[in-house]
Specification:
The chain is mostly helical. Helices cover 51% and strands 6% of the residues.
Length: 69
């Protein structure tokens, strides 16, 4: 069975985590997670893998959008 493509925020919500809980588990500031979720910045590959593990959702199906400058 395939997975739907979802936003980073939706993946966090589906994992039943608040931003504070997710940021703490990932070892980052809440503001950094907010920037990832809003597309201000994109996490590096190591962080993407950590997010994938925490949210128990394949990174290939999470939308990591970055706003254009």
């Amino acid at each position: 069975m395939g997975y739907p493509r979802i936003t980073l925020k939706a993946a966090r919500v589906n994992a039943d985590l608040s931003q504070r809980e997710a940021a703490q588990a990932l070892g980052i500031n809440v503001s950094t997670l907010q920037h990832y979720e809003t597309g201000k910045t994109v996490p590096d590959w190591d962080m993407v893998k950590r997010i994938e593990q925490l949210y128990a959702f394949p990174a290939d199906y999470i939308i990591f959008a970055c706003k254009s400058a």
